[in-house]
Write a structure and sequence with these properties.
The complex is a heterodimer.
Chain A: H1 3-6, H2 9-13, H3 20-26, E1 33-34, H4 46-58, H5 70-84, E2 94-97, H6 99-111, E3 117-122, H7 128-134, E4 138-143, H8 154-160, E5 165-170, H9 183-193, E6 199-203, E7 228-233, E8 246-249, H10 252-265, H11 271-283, H12 285-309, E9 321-322, H13 333-344, E10 346-347, E11 349-350, E12 362-365, H14 370-388
Parallel strand pairs in A: 1-10, 3-4, 3-5, 5-6, 6-7
Antiparallel strand pairs in A: 2-8, 7-8, 9-12, 11-12
Chain B: H1 2-10, H2 16-23, H3 27-40, H4 52-55, E1 60-68, H5 77-84, E2 89-94, E3 101-107, H6 110-121, E4 127-134, E5 140-141, E6 144-145
Antiparallel strand pairs in B: 1-3, 1-4, 2-3, 5-6
Helix pairs in contact in B: 2-3
The chains are: A alpha/beta, B alpha+beta.
Chain lengths: 390, 158
Amino acid sequence: MNYEQLMSQRAQQIAPSPIRRFFDLAETMDNVISLGVGEPDFRTPWPIRSAAIATLERQAIIYGANSGLLQLREEIAGYMERRFNLSYHPEDELLVTVGGSEAVDLTFRTLLNPGDEVLICEPSFVCYAPLVRMADGVPVPLPTKEENQFKLTAADLKAAITPKTKLLMLSYPNNPTGAIMTREDYREIVEVLRGTDIFVLSDEIYCAMTYGTKHCSIAEFDGMRERTVVVNGFSKTFAMTGWRLGWMAAPAPIIAQARKIHQYAIMCAPMVSQRAAIEALRHCDAEVTQMIEEYDHRRRFLLERFRQMGLPCFEAQGAFYLFPSIAGTGMDGETFCEKLLQEERVAVVPGGAFGESGKNNLRISYAYSLKHLTEAANRMERFIARHCGT
Amino acid sequence: MKELLSLLKQNARLSNADLAAMLGRSEETVAAQIAEMEEQGVIRGYSVIVDEELADRDAVTAYIELKITPQPDCGFDELARTISGFSAVESVTLMSGGYDLGITITGTSLRDIASFVAQRLATLDGVLSTRTHFVLKRYKEKGILIQEEPGDERGVYL
Protein backbone atom coordinates (compact mmCIF):
# COMPACT_ATOMS: atom_id res chain seq x y z
CA MET A 1 0.00 0.00 0.00
CA ASN A 2 1.26 3.45 -0.81
CA TYR A 3 -0.06 4.98 2.35
CA GLU A 4 1.08 8.51 1.70
CA GLN A 5 -0.65 8.62 -1.61
CA LEU A 6 -3.81 6.94 -0.44
CA MET A 7 -4.44 8.56 2.90
CA SER A 8 -6.13 11.91 3.52
CA GLN A 9 -3.91 14.74 2.28
CA ARG A 10 -5.41 17.06 4.81
CA ALA A 11 -4.56 14.77 7.72
CA GLN A 12 -1.01 14.34 6.46
CA GLN A 13 -0.52 18.06 6.12
CA ILE A 14 -1.13 18.61 9.81
CA ALA A 15 2.17 19.13 11.59
CA PRO A 16 2.93 17.10 14.71
CA SER A 17 2.66 18.98 18.03
CA PRO A 18 5.67 21.28 18.40
CA ILE A 19 5.66 20.92 22.19
CA ARG A 20 6.75 17.32 22.07
CA ARG A 21 10.21 17.74 20.53
CA PHE A 22 12.09 18.82 23.67
CA PHE A 23 10.44 16.23 25.79
CA ASP A 24 11.46 13.44 23.46
CA LEU A 25 15.01 14.71 23.89
CA ALA A 26 14.59 15.14 27.65
CA GLU A 27 13.46 11.55 28.02
CA THR A 28 16.87 10.36 26.85
CA MET A 29 18.64 12.25 29.66
CA ASP A 30 19.07 11.67 33.39
CA ASN A 31 18.30 14.07 36.19
CA VAL A 32 16.06 16.28 34.07
CA ILE A 33 13.73 18.60 35.93
CA SER A 34 10.72 19.67 33.94
CA LEU A 35 8.63 22.81 33.96
CA GLY A 36 6.81 21.66 30.89
CA VAL A 37 3.72 19.82 32.00
CA GLY A 38 0.36 21.40 31.25
CA GLU A 39 -1.81 19.70 33.83
CA PRO A 40 -2.32 20.05 37.59
CA ASP A 41 0.09 18.25 39.93
CA PHE A 42 -2.72 17.82 42.45
CA ARG A 43 -4.62 14.57 42.64
CA THR A 44 -8.33 14.68 41.88
CA PRO A 45 -10.03 15.58 45.21
CA TRP A 46 -11.08 12.50 47.12
CA PRO A 47 -14.87 13.14 47.17
CA ILE A 48 -14.84 13.03 43.36
CA ARG A 49 -12.89 9.78 43.24
CA SER A 50 -15.11 8.34 45.91
CA ALA A 51 -18.20 9.19 43.84
CA ALA A 52 -16.62 7.38 40.88
CA ILE A 53 -15.98 4.30 43.03
CA ALA A 54 -19.56 4.33 44.27
CA THR A 55 -20.74 4.58 40.66
CA LEU A 56 -18.69 1.55 39.69
CA GLU A 57 -20.07 -0.38 42.62
CA ARG A 58 -23.72 0.52 42.31
CA GLN A 59 -24.56 1.58 38.79
CA ALA A 60 -24.71 -0.12 35.46
CA ILE A 61 -22.08 1.56 33.29
CA ILE A 62 -24.14 1.98 30.16
CA TYR A 63 -24.70 4.61 27.48
CA GLY A 64 -26.43 7.74 28.66
CA ALA A 65 -28.16 10.71 27.08
CA ASN A 66 -26.17 12.11 24.14
CA SER A 67 -26.09 15.56 25.75
CA GLY A 68 -24.85 14.17 29.05
CA LEU A 69 -26.69 13.32 32.27
CA LEU A 70 -29.42 15.87 32.81
CA GLN A 71 -28.47 16.07 36.48
CA LEU A 72 -24.93 17.01 35.48
CA ARG A 73 -26.15 19.59 32.98
CA GLU A 74 -28.29 21.11 35.73
CA GLU A 75 -25.25 21.33 37.99
CA ILE A 76 -23.22 22.89 35.17
CA ALA A 77 -25.96 25.45 34.57
CA GLY A 78 -25.96 26.25 38.29
CA TYR A 79 -22.17 26.57 38.32
CA MET A 80 -22.12 28.95 35.34
CA GLU A 81 -24.85 31.03 36.92
CA ARG A 82 -23.09 31.15 40.28
CA ARG A 83 -19.61 31.82 38.92
CA PHE A 84 -20.17 33.97 35.84
CA ASN A 85 -23.73 35.11 35.96
CA LEU A 86 -24.35 33.19 32.74
CA SER A 87 -27.68 31.51 32.30
CA TYR A 88 -27.90 28.40 30.09
CA HIS A 89 -30.81 26.05 29.79
CA PRO A 90 -29.74 22.51 30.78
CA GLU A 91 -32.11 20.91 28.25
CA ASP A 92 -30.97 22.47 25.02
CA GLU A 93 -28.08 24.87 25.61
CA LEU A 94 -25.51 22.58 27.21
CA LEU A 95 -23.64 19.59 25.84
CA VAL A 96 -21.30 17.41 27.93
CA THR A 97 -18.20 16.47 25.92
CA VAL A 98 -15.05 14.37 26.10
CA GLY A 99 -12.88 17.11 27.55
CA GLY A 100 -12.87 20.73 26.45
CA SER A 101 -10.98 19.57 23.35
CA GLU A 102 -13.98 17.79 21.89
CA ALA A 103 -16.11 20.86 22.49
CA VAL A 104 -13.57 22.98 20.59
CA ASP A 105 -13.55 20.51 17.70
CA LEU A 106 -17.35 20.32 17.67
CA THR A 107 -17.66 24.08 17.57
CA PHE A 108 -15.44 24.34 14.49
CA ARG A 109 -17.27 21.52 12.77
CA THR A 110 -20.63 23.03 13.62
CA LEU A 111 -19.94 26.61 12.60
CA LEU A 112 -17.50 26.50 9.69
CA ASN A 113 -18.14 26.32 5.98
CA PRO A 114 -15.22 25.70 3.61
CA GLY A 115 -13.00 28.76 3.41
CA ASP A 116 -14.35 30.45 6.54
CA GLU A 117 -11.66 32.27 8.44
CA VAL A 118 -11.09 31.72 12.13
CA LEU A 119 -9.12 34.38 13.98
CA ILE A 120 -6.97 32.65 16.56
CA CYS A 121 -5.39 34.78 19.26
CA GLU A 122 -1.77 33.75 19.54
CA PRO A 123 0.22 32.59 21.41
CA SER A 124 -2.32 29.92 22.24
CA PHE A 125 -2.80 26.21 22.80
CA VAL A 126 -1.60 24.18 19.84
CA CYS A 127 -4.82 22.35 18.93
CA TYR A 128 -6.89 25.18 17.47
CA ALA A 129 -5.35 25.68 14.03
CA PRO A 130 -5.14 21.95 13.13
CA LEU A 131 -8.75 21.42 14.21
CA VAL A 132 -9.89 24.42 12.15
CA ARG A 133 -8.12 22.91 9.11
CA MET A 134 -9.78 19.55 9.67
CA ALA A 135 -13.12 21.38 9.60
CA ASP A 136 -12.28 23.00 6.23
CA GLY A 137 -11.73 26.37 7.85
CA VAL A 138 -8.78 28.71 7.42
CA PRO A 139 -6.91 29.53 10.62
CA VAL A 140 -5.76 33.15 10.70
CA PRO A 141 -3.25 33.96 13.45
CA LEU A 142 -4.13 37.05 15.45
CA PRO A 143 -0.92 37.85 17.31
CA THR A 144 -1.13 39.42 20.75
CA LYS A 145 1.83 41.36 22.04
CA GLU A 146 3.93 41.32 25.15
CA GLU A 147 3.60 45.11 25.50
CA ASN A 148 -0.17 44.53 25.86
CA GLN A 149 0.46 41.71 28.32
CA PHE A 150 -0.72 39.34 25.58
CA LYS A 151 -4.27 40.64 25.72
CA LEU A 152 -6.33 41.04 22.58
CA THR A 153 -6.86 44.70 21.66
CA ALA A 154 -9.68 46.18 19.59
CA ALA A 155 -7.18 47.65 17.13
CA ASP A 156 -5.55 44.27 16.47
CA LEU A 157 -8.93 42.63 16.12
CA LYS A 158 -10.28 45.26 13.71
CA ALA A 159 -7.22 44.98 11.53
CA ALA A 160 -7.62 41.21 11.24
CA ILE A 161 -11.32 41.04 10.36
CA THR A 162 -12.14 40.34 6.69
CA PRO A 163 -15.46 39.56 4.98
CA LYS A 164 -14.58 35.89 5.40
CA THR A 165 -14.15 36.05 9.16
CA LYS A 166 -16.59 33.59 10.69
CA LEU A 167 -15.27 33.05 14.17
CA LEU A 168 -13.02 34.64 16.77
CA MET A 169 -11.18 32.13 18.95
CA LEU A 170 -10.43 33.40 22.47
CA SER A 171 -8.67 31.48 25.19
CA TYR A 172 -8.33 33.42 28.42
CA PRO A 173 -6.94 32.74 30.99
CA ASN A 174 -4.39 31.78 28.41
CA ASN A 175 -2.15 28.83 27.88
CA PRO A 176 0.81 29.52 27.35
CA THR A 177 1.08 33.16 28.46
CA GLY A 178 -0.99 33.18 31.66
CA ALA A 179 -2.66 36.35 30.33
CA ILE A 180 -6.23 37.17 31.30
CA MET A 181 -8.88 39.46 29.86
CA THR A 182 -10.72 41.58 32.42
CA ARG A 183 -14.18 43.03 32.05
CA GLU A 184 -12.55 46.32 31.08
CA ASP A 185 -10.38 44.63 28.45
CA TYR A 186 -13.40 42.96 26.87
CA ARG A 187 -15.45 46.13 26.61
CA GLU A 188 -13.70 47.41 23.48
CA ILE A 189 -13.63 43.93 21.92
CA VAL A 190 -17.37 43.65 22.40
CA GLU A 191 -17.84 47.01 20.65
CA VAL A 192 -16.04 45.69 17.59
CA LEU A 193 -18.07 42.47 17.44
CA ARG A 194 -21.50 43.84 18.17
CA GLY A 195 -23.48 44.32 14.97
CA THR A 196 -21.34 41.84 12.99
CA ASP A 197 -22.12 38.21 12.21
CA ILE A 198 -18.91 36.96 13.74
CA PHE A 199 -19.16 34.10 16.22
CA VAL A 200 -16.93 33.80 19.27
CA LEU A 201 -15.48 30.59 20.68
CA SER A 202 -14.32 31.25 24.22
CA ASP A 203 -12.20 28.45 25.67
CA GLU A 204 -12.43 29.10 29.41
CA ILE A 205 -10.87 25.88 30.65
CA TYR A 206 -8.59 27.84 33.05
CA CYS A 207 -11.43 30.03 34.37
CA ALA A 208 -10.89 29.01 37.99
CA MET A 209 -7.25 30.06 37.89
CA THR A 210 -7.23 33.82 38.09
CA TYR A 211 -5.25 35.57 40.77
CA GLY A 212 -6.38 38.78 42.36
CA THR A 213 -9.29 39.19 39.95
CA LYS A 214 -12.42 37.23 39.09
CA HIS A 215 -12.74 35.55 35.69
CA CYS A 216 -14.94 37.32 33.20
CA SER A 217 -16.59 35.55 30.27
CA ILE A 218 -17.22 37.49 27.07
CA ALA A 219 -20.65 35.84 26.95
CA GLU A 220 -21.66 38.02 29.93
CA PHE A 221 -21.88 41.12 27.73
CA ASP A 222 -25.06 42.29 26.04
CA GLY A 223 -25.26 41.01 22.51
CA MET A 224 -22.51 38.44 23.05
CA ARG A 225 -24.31 35.41 24.41
CA GLU A 226 -26.18 34.89 21.15
CA ARG A 227 -22.93 34.63 19.16
CA THR A 228 -20.71 32.90 21.71
CA VAL A 229 -19.85 29.29 22.36
CA VAL A 230 -18.35 28.89 25.82
CA VAL A 231 -16.12 25.86 26.27
CA ASN A 232 -15.20 24.71 29.74
CA GLY A 233 -14.31 21.53 31.56
CA PHE A 234 -13.26 19.71 34.69
CA SER A 235 -9.62 19.00 33.82
CA LYS A 236 -7.88 22.04 35.25
CA THR A 237 -10.33 23.36 37.84
CA PHE A 238 -10.87 20.03 39.57
CA ALA A 239 -7.57 18.35 38.63
CA MET A 240 -9.45 15.82 36.49
CA THR A 241 -7.46 15.74 33.24
CA GLY A 242 -7.60 11.97 32.74
CA TRP A 243 -11.34 11.83 33.33
CA ARG A 244 -11.88 13.50 29.95
CA LEU A 245 -14.86 15.64 30.68
CA GLY A 246 -15.83 19.08 29.45
CA TRP A 247 -18.81 20.93 28.12
CA MET A 248 -19.99 23.49 25.62
CA ALA A 249 -22.59 26.12 26.36
CA ALA A 250 -24.22 27.89 23.43
CA PRO A 251 -27.56 28.99 22.00
CA ALA A 252 -29.90 26.09 21.25
CA PRO A 253 -29.53 26.12 17.43
CA ILE A 254 -25.75 25.63 17.75
CA ILE A 255 -26.06 22.89 20.38
CA ALA A 256 -28.66 21.08 18.23
CA GLN A 257 -26.16 20.76 15.35
CA ALA A 258 -23.20 19.97 17.60
CA ARG A 259 -25.20 17.29 19.36
CA LYS A 260 -25.68 15.38 16.10
CA ILE A 261 -21.95 15.26 15.42
CA HIS A 262 -21.27 14.29 19.02
CA GLN A 263 -23.97 11.62 18.84
CA TYR A 264 -22.49 9.97 15.74
CA ALA A 265 -18.84 10.30 16.72
CA ILE A 266 -18.88 9.86 20.49
CA MET A 267 -22.37 8.77 21.61
CA CYS A 268 -21.88 10.12 25.11
CA ALA A 269 -19.10 11.31 27.40
CA PRO A 270 -17.80 8.71 29.88
CA MET A 271 -20.53 7.94 32.39
CA VAL A 272 -18.32 7.25 35.42
CA SER A 273 -16.70 10.64 34.93
CA GLN A 274 -20.09 12.31 34.54
CA ARG A 275 -21.39 10.97 37.83
CA ALA A 276 -18.16 11.92 39.61
CA ALA A 277 -18.35 15.40 38.10
CA ILE A 278 -21.72 16.00 39.75
CA GLU A 279 -19.93 15.59 43.07
CA ALA A 280 -17.19 17.96 41.91
CA LEU A 281 -19.66 20.75 41.16
CA ARG A 282 -21.68 20.19 44.31
CA HIS A 283 -19.12 19.70 47.03
CA CYS A 284 -15.58 20.61 46.02
CA ASP A 285 -15.41 24.41 46.25
CA ALA A 286 -13.10 24.21 49.28
CA GLU A 287 -10.68 21.85 47.54
CA VAL A 288 -10.58 24.10 44.49
CA THR A 289 -9.97 27.20 46.60
CA GLN A 290 -7.06 25.50 48.30
CA MET A 291 -5.47 24.47 45.01
CA ILE A 292 -5.84 27.99 43.60
CA GLU A 293 -4.23 29.48 46.70
CA GLU A 294 -1.29 27.18 46.29
CA TYR A 295 -0.91 27.99 42.59
CA ASP A 296 -0.90 31.66 43.52
CA HIS A 297 1.90 31.15 46.06
CA ARG A 298 3.98 29.38 43.45
CA ARG A 299 3.21 32.02 40.82
CA ARG A 300 4.42 34.82 43.06
CA PHE A 301 7.43 32.83 44.18
CA LEU A 302 8.56 32.15 40.62
CA LEU A 303 7.88 35.70 39.43
CA GLU A 304 10.15 36.95 42.20
CA ARG A 305 12.85 34.42 41.34
CA PHE A 306 12.74 35.47 37.67
CA ARG A 307 12.95 39.11 38.69
CA GLN A 308 16.01 38.37 40.80
CA MET A 309 17.78 36.41 38.09
CA GLY A 310 17.09 39.14 35.56
CA LEU A 311 14.63 37.25 33.39
CA PRO A 312 11.91 39.78 32.47
CA CYS A 313 8.41 38.42 32.95
CA PHE A 314 5.07 40.22 32.83
CA GLU A 315 2.83 39.52 35.77
CA ALA A 316 0.62 36.76 34.42
CA GLN A 317 -2.61 36.60 36.41
CA GLY A 318 -4.14 33.40 35.13
CA ALA A 319 -3.79 29.69 34.38
CA PHE A 320 -0.61 28.12 35.79
CA TYR A 321 1.96 29.46 33.38
CA LEU A 322 4.52 32.23 33.29
CA PHE A 323 5.86 33.49 30.00
CA PRO A 324 9.23 35.15 30.62
CA SER A 325 10.97 36.96 27.80
CA ILE A 326 14.38 35.86 26.60
CA ALA A 327 14.65 38.66 24.04
CA GLY A 328 17.59 40.11 25.96
CA THR A 329 19.63 36.93 26.08
CA GLY A 330 20.72 36.98 22.46
CA MET A 331 19.35 33.48 21.95
CA ASP A 332 16.20 32.42 20.16
CA GLY A 333 13.70 30.25 22.00
CA GLU A 334 14.78 26.95 20.49
CA THR A 335 18.46 27.59 21.20
CA PHE A 336 17.75 28.78 24.72
CA CYS A 337 15.64 25.74 25.55
CA GLU A 338 18.09 23.31 24.01
CA LYS A 339 21.06 24.80 25.90
CA LEU A 340 19.08 24.95 29.13
CA LEU A 341 18.24 21.30 28.75
CA GLN A 342 21.78 20.24 27.80
CA GLU A 343 23.60 22.32 30.40
CA GLU A 344 21.27 22.43 33.37
CA ARG A 345 18.83 19.64 32.61
CA VAL A 346 15.77 21.87 32.81
CA ALA A 347 13.03 21.17 30.29
CA VAL A 348 10.78 24.07 29.29
CA VAL A 349 8.77 24.75 26.16
CA PRO A 350 9.86 27.50 23.74
CA GLY A 351 7.08 30.07 23.39
CA GLY A 352 7.28 29.87 19.62
CA ALA A 353 5.56 26.48 19.81
CA PHE A 354 2.36 28.40 20.55
CA GLY A 355 2.63 30.91 17.73
CA GLU A 356 5.10 33.25 16.11
CA SER A 357 4.38 36.05 18.58
CA GLY A 358 5.70 33.92 21.43
CA LYS A 359 9.05 33.23 19.84
CA ASN A 360 10.98 35.37 22.32
CA ASN A 361 9.45 33.75 25.36
CA LEU A 362 9.44 30.53 27.39
CA ARG A 363 6.39 28.73 28.67
CA ILE A 364 6.96 27.88 32.30
CA SER A 365 4.41 25.73 34.08
CA TYR A 366 4.18 26.10 37.84
CA ALA A 367 1.99 23.05 38.33
CA TYR A 368 4.81 21.64 40.46
CA SER A 369 5.72 21.54 44.15
CA LEU A 370 7.60 24.45 45.63
CA LYS A 371 10.61 22.22 46.19
CA HIS A 372 10.64 21.29 42.51
CA LEU A 373 10.22 24.92 41.45
CA THR A 374 13.04 26.01 43.75
CA GLU A 375 15.47 23.52 42.25
CA ALA A 376 14.44 24.43 38.71
CA ALA A 377 14.81 28.16 39.47
CA ASN A 378 18.27 27.57 40.96
CA ARG A 379 19.38 25.84 37.80
CA MET A 380 17.90 28.53 35.58
CA GLU A 381 19.60 31.20 37.66
CA ARG A 382 22.97 29.55 37.10
CA PHE A 383 22.26 29.32 33.39
CA ILE A 384 21.27 32.98 33.09
CA ALA A 385 24.28 34.09 35.12
CA ARG A 386 26.58 32.11 32.86
CA HIS A 387 25.13 33.26 29.55
CA CYS A 388 23.88 36.72 30.30
CA GLY A 389 26.08 37.69 33.26
CA THR A 390 27.04 41.32 33.60
CA MET B 1 -1.97 35.63 59.17
CA LYS B 2 -3.82 32.43 58.41
CA GLU B 3 -2.16 32.05 55.00
CA LEU B 4 1.26 32.76 56.49
CA LEU B 5 0.69 30.20 59.22
CA SER B 6 -0.41 27.60 56.73
CA LEU B 7 2.79 28.12 54.70
CA LEU B 8 4.94 27.85 57.83
CA LYS B 9 3.14 24.67 58.83
CA GLN B 10 4.13 23.14 55.51
CA ASN B 11 7.71 24.33 55.76
CA ALA B 12 8.93 26.43 58.67
CA ARG B 13 12.31 26.86 57.00
CA LEU B 14 11.06 29.03 54.16
CA SER B 15 12.96 32.30 54.31
CA ASN B 16 11.11 35.50 55.08
CA ALA B 17 12.01 36.64 51.56
CA ASP B 18 10.34 33.57 50.00
CA LEU B 19 7.31 33.91 52.25
CA ALA B 20 7.04 37.58 51.34
CA ALA B 21 7.19 36.77 47.62
CA MET B 22 4.56 34.05 47.90
CA LEU B 23 2.18 36.19 49.89
CA GLY B 24 2.77 39.41 47.99
CA ARG B 25 3.87 41.25 51.12
CA SER B 26 7.12 42.93 52.09
CA GLU B 27 9.79 41.00 53.91
CA GLU B 28 9.47 43.41 56.84
CA THR B 29 5.73 42.76 57.12
CA VAL B 30 6.28 39.01 57.16
CA ALA B 31 8.99 39.31 59.82
CA ALA B 32 6.73 41.50 61.95
CA GLN B 33 3.79 39.12 61.61
CA ILE B 34 5.88 36.12 62.60
CA ALA B 35 7.29 38.02 65.57
CA GLU B 36 3.78 38.98 66.61
CA MET B 37 2.55 35.40 66.46
CA GLU B 38 5.55 34.26 68.47
CA GLU B 39 4.90 37.02 70.98
CA GLN B 40 1.23 36.05 71.35
CA GLY B 41 2.13 32.38 71.68
CA VAL B 42 0.25 31.47 68.50
CA ILE B 43 3.55 30.07 67.32
CA ARG B 44 4.96 27.97 70.14
CA GLY B 45 8.10 26.79 68.47
CA TYR B 46 9.63 25.21 65.39
CA SER B 47 10.35 21.56 65.10
CA VAL B 48 11.46 19.05 62.53
CA ILE B 49 9.68 16.03 61.16
CA VAL B 50 12.01 13.07 61.22
CA ASP B 51 11.72 9.68 59.63
CA GLU B 52 12.73 7.87 62.83
CA GLU B 53 13.37 4.67 60.95
CA LEU B 54 16.09 6.33 58.92
CA ALA B 55 17.45 8.43 61.77
CA ASP B 56 17.70 5.63 64.33
CA ARG B 57 16.67 2.09 63.54
CA ASP B 58 16.27 1.27 67.22
CA ALA B 59 13.85 4.05 68.09
CA VAL B 60 10.49 2.85 69.39
CA THR B 61 7.45 5.08 69.60
CA ALA B 62 4.34 4.32 71.61
CA TYR B 63 0.96 5.91 71.94
CA ILE B 64 -0.42 5.55 75.45
CA GLU B 65 -4.01 5.98 76.53
CA LEU B 66 -4.42 7.07 80.12
CA LYS B 67 -7.51 7.06 82.27
CA ILE B 68 -7.15 9.43 85.18
CA THR B 69 -9.21 10.85 88.00
CA PRO B 70 -9.93 14.54 87.59
CA GLN B 71 -8.68 16.57 90.54
CA PRO B 72 -10.86 19.04 92.43
CA ASP B 73 -10.38 22.63 91.14
CA CYS B 74 -8.03 21.85 88.27
CA GLY B 75 -9.63 18.84 86.57
CA PHE B 76 -7.11 17.10 84.33
CA ASP B 77 -4.68 19.97 84.00
CA GLU B 78 -2.32 19.31 86.87
CA LEU B 79 -1.67 15.70 86.01
CA ALA B 80 -1.35 16.60 82.33
CA ARG B 81 1.27 19.20 83.25
CA THR B 82 3.17 16.72 85.38
CA ILE B 83 3.26 14.23 82.53
CA SER B 84 4.27 16.94 80.06
CA GLY B 85 7.29 17.53 82.26
CA PHE B 86 8.90 14.19 81.41
CA SER B 87 11.43 14.77 78.67
CA ALA B 88 10.67 11.47 76.95
CA VAL B 89 7.06 12.53 76.43
CA GLU B 90 6.52 14.12 73.02
CA SER B 91 2.87 15.00 73.14
CA VAL B 92 0.06 15.12 75.67
CA THR B 93 -3.55 15.72 74.69
CA LEU B 94 -6.83 15.61 76.58
CA MET B 95 -9.27 13.43 74.72
CA SER B 96 -12.98 12.95 74.57
CA GLY B 97 -14.25 9.38 74.46
CA GLY B 98 -13.04 6.23 76.11
CA TYR B 99 -9.94 7.62 77.83
CA ASP B 100 -8.65 10.93 79.10
CA LEU B 101 -5.06 11.62 78.11
CA GLY B 102 -3.30 10.54 74.94
CA ILE B 103 0.48 10.52 75.19
CA THR B 104 3.19 9.94 72.63
CA ILE B 105 6.58 8.80 73.77
CA THR B 106 9.74 7.67 71.98
CA GLY B 107 12.34 5.43 73.56
CA THR B 108 15.23 3.23 72.53
CA SER B 109 13.54 -0.14 73.09
CA LEU B 110 10.29 -1.83 74.04
CA ARG B 111 11.70 -2.39 77.49
CA ASP B 112 12.60 1.26 77.81
CA ILE B 113 8.98 2.24 77.18
CA ALA B 114 7.57 -0.55 79.32
CA SER B 115 9.57 0.61 82.28
CA PHE B 116 8.60 4.23 81.75
CA VAL B 117 4.92 3.25 81.77
CA ALA B 118 5.23 0.95 84.76
CA GLN B 119 7.51 3.10 86.90
CA ARG B 120 6.70 6.66 85.94
CA LEU B 121 3.18 6.85 84.56
CA ALA B 122 1.19 4.09 86.27
CA THR B 123 2.49 5.10 89.67
CA LEU B 124 1.32 8.71 89.45
CA ASP B 125 -1.49 9.67 91.81
CA GLY B 126 -4.73 9.83 89.90
CA VAL B 127 -3.74 7.47 87.08
CA LEU B 128 -6.36 4.73 86.92
CA SER B 129 -5.18 2.69 83.95
CA THR B 130 -2.88 2.74 80.92
CA ARG B 131 -3.01 1.12 77.50
CA THR B 132 0.12 1.15 75.43
CA HIS B 133 0.08 0.91 71.63
CA PHE B 134 3.37 0.57 69.81
CA VAL B 135 3.78 2.39 66.54
CA LEU B 136 4.62 -0.02 63.73
CA LYS B 137 5.01 2.41 60.89
CA ARG B 138 4.34 6.06 60.27
CA TYR B 139 2.96 7.34 56.99
CA LYS B 140 2.29 10.99 57.61
CA GLU B 141 2.95 13.49 60.34
CA LYS B 142 1.79 17.08 60.59
CA GLY B 143 0.85 17.05 56.96
CA ILE B 144 4.23 15.74 55.83
CA LEU B 145 4.45 12.34 54.18
CA ILE B 146 6.91 9.91 55.78
CA GLN B 147 7.22 7.67 52.75
CA GLU B 148 8.55 7.74 49.25
CA GLU B 149 6.85 10.56 47.41
CA PRO B 150 5.04 9.14 44.41
CA GLY B 151 6.98 9.97 41.26
CA ASP B 152 5.63 12.47 38.75
CA GLU B 153 3.73 10.33 36.29
CA ARG B 154 2.70 13.22 34.12
CA GLY B 155 4.04 13.37 30.61
CA VAL B 156 3.84 15.86 27.82
CA TYR B 157 1.27 14.55 25.41
CA LEU B 158 0.46 17.52 23.27
